[in-house]
């Protein structure tokens, strides 16, 4: 996996994706510290490792010519979040694992020539993903720098809130064919062929995570299907749909596919509105446009680059 080299200060980010750190070399001693917002959310993606990195940077030298160490404490008990209207809870210890942790203590190395030292946190694919709270910004891991081989410690604490998203969560452009069936007969002269006319949100289907492998699908408002909603499960090469109360019942037809290499769908289904007898048969290609994770716009090109 390739990584863009950015010299930054807080070392806290998703594996191989982004860092929001800054390095200050104009100090009279070396320093280990966090220096971004105290509270961060990190979203792991089902099927993409369920892993993120936490670390810290060093400051005080223009050239780091030796290995440095930073010791971290991961708080596992006796933590209360006191912000007003705070819904956060301590991340249960059996929901994650790290390398070489001993009673919540672990060490990261800043290699010679580098300025950042990390350790990885991997979420448990059973305990974490089976908890509905893991969909929200609730479970939080407090981390503190408690020691270092550097001269001193600056800002020493962060709270990392962790949630997950489905691998197919995102925005999708569309091109579709809609055939109309009345009294059991397909009326070819009533067939509608359509395609998105721009890449704006109004021309995009939205797939929103509601479970590890389940999303709520909402049709583009400019499409013939205009805001049609249904739940869709995508797992192990299989696609299934379930109805949403108050929405037309969607039934799959023929073959439905998801290509994980392009992130595109081909869906074939039919539905009927309550106020008429017409059955609408829809064949649509959903073309992945982007997803947004932790404030980063992850486009098709962005994800292709980082997953080479």
Automatic annotation (TrEMBL):
<protein>
    <recommendedName>
        <fullName>DUF1735 domain-containing protein</fullName>
    </recommendedName>
</protein>
